[in-house]
Amino acid sequence: MFLNGERVNKKSTMTVKSPYNHQIVGTLGRSDEKDVIQAVENAQRGFKLLKRMPAGERASILQRTAQIMGDNKEDFACTISLESGKTIREARGEVQRAIQTMRLSAVAALDLHGETVRFDLEGRSNKVGFYERVPLGIVCAITPFNFPLNLSCHKIGPAIAAGNAVIHKPASTTPVSGVKLAEALVQAGLPPEGISVLVGPGSTIGMLLVKHEAVRKISFTGSLEVGQLITRNAGMKRVTMELGSNSAVIVFKDASLQHVAKKVKIGGYALAGQVCISIQRVYVEQDVADEFLRELSLQAGSIKIGDPMQDDTDMGPMIDEGALEKASNFCEDAKKHKGIVLLGGRRDGPFFLPTIIHESTEDALVIQEEAFAPIVAVNTFTSIEEVIDKVNNTKYGLQTGVFTADITKALICAQKIDAGGVLINEIPTFRVDNMPYGGTKGSGLGREGPKFAIKEMTEEKLIIFDQLP
């Protein structure tokens, strides 16, 4: 727990352990209701300071935070790898992205502006006016385990850039990264009241924050079910919901199958499939399905699982037993729905083996729900109308990939697929931190990316002058 610019020790603690070998990563004080009250009071004071702070100063704090993170890259990466189970190579990549996110947030602080408003639409007017964007107040950032640093930066960076104070509730399995980020912010010059980190279950600590009247904005990344619970309890607050998905890839027969298979290996099995935009469904044109399955099987079969701290490990463990059990259930359900397990389909200690399931029916869990596991379901199609209907026939709509050399097919897919992003000749797992990122339907509300998130963390304030007679 992090309050008043420092870690707070308490009798009640949370011990963070590696999902790979249960090594202790850190022990933090467990937050309670009194800590929530204290964090809100701190944030109210912090907001008064930050909203008056010049934008250039807020931008400088974020730039210095990025520099501190850069100076401590390996420490951040090791913390991420140990507490989340992602490979050290993946963790290093996340740290680099997080640094970029903080720099983009600094730019967003300087670019935030309003516009003039015309009053002479129906004739001459003595009035002149403009609106400016002002911070909301207290932003509550609730973040998941899979990107414990960068997804925190995507919420905290824009919030501070706009002049808000932040209370961060990281995932209980990966809170150490969040505390280290808060320490870097205070070291960079952020008033200690501007950032707090509360550690504890989302069902208690998180819900107290969601319901608190002083909190003006909830930015959440997690499952659809929890997102729905938050929106039901938030009251009159702004909300950004980055929720689940079962991202699809469409492979037309004119695509380079070997190239696509290599891409699907990256997008389906990175972080053991525990990514919102992980590839879960692949629809391949029937004429080339057998060839594609051979290529994908070779790629997935070459993945090396093991100690995530070793540089040559390709895939680490699942986050916990619940995730492993869910992955197993998805595979068993797929078999009941005519699916054929071509590769994997089972756990091996803390790992779930890279899995390929072929031709399960469209009502199977692996097609309709979010597996959040290294499972790729490959089904076939014969027409563009059929495959678009299949891609759209779920409650999710985050990002979709389409591989084809035919510009007409690409444009039809881009126009008719219901998703927050349609990527042509790229996998849906692709994301850069300056793009507008978010979904439709059950995949969420609002957009992230500092330039876009900062607008959702501010509101328009109108100012009108009338010339005196």
Note the main sheet: 7 strands, mixed
What distance separates the N and C termini?
59 Å
Q: What is the count of helical runs?
A: 15
Structural class of the secondary structure composition?
A: alpha/beta
- CATH architectural category of the largest domain: 3-Layer(aba) Sandwich
Unreliable parts: none
User: Number of DSSP strands?
Assistant: 22
Total tally of structural domains = 2
Helix content: 40-55%
CATH topology of the largest domain: Aldehyde Dehydrogenase, Chain A, domain 1
Radius of gyration: 23 Å
Give a short synopsis of this structure.
The protein has helices spanning 33-52, 55-71, 73-84, 88-111, 150-162, 176-187, 202-211, 224-233, 257-269, 289-301, 321-336, 365-368, 384-392, 407-416, 450-456, and strands at residues 2-3, 6-7, 13-17, 24-29, 115-117, 127-135, 138-142, 165-169, 195-197, 215-221, 238-242, 248-251, 281-285, 340-343, 347-348, 351-352, 355-358, 375-381, 399-403, 421-424, 444-445, 458-466.
Write the SSE topology:
Blueprint lengths: L1 E2 L2 E2 L5 E5 L6 E6 L3 H20 L2 H17 L1 H12 L3 H24 L3 E3 L9 E9 L2 E5 L7 H13 L2 E5 L6 H12 L7 E3 L4 H10 L3 E7 L2 H10 L4 E5 L5 E4 L5 H13 L11 E5 L3 H13 L19 H16 L3 E4 L3 E2 L2 E2 L2 E4 L6 H4 L6 E7 L2 H9 L6 E5 L3 H10 L4 E4 L19 E2 L4 H7 L1 E9 L3
Parallel strand pairs: 7-8, 7-10, 8-9, 10-11, 12-13, 12-19, 13-18, 17-18, 19-20
Antiparallel strand pairs: 1-2, 3-4, 5-6, 6-22, 11-21, 14-17, 15-16
Helix pairs in contact: 2-4, 2-5, 2-6, 3-4, 4-5, 5-15, 9-10
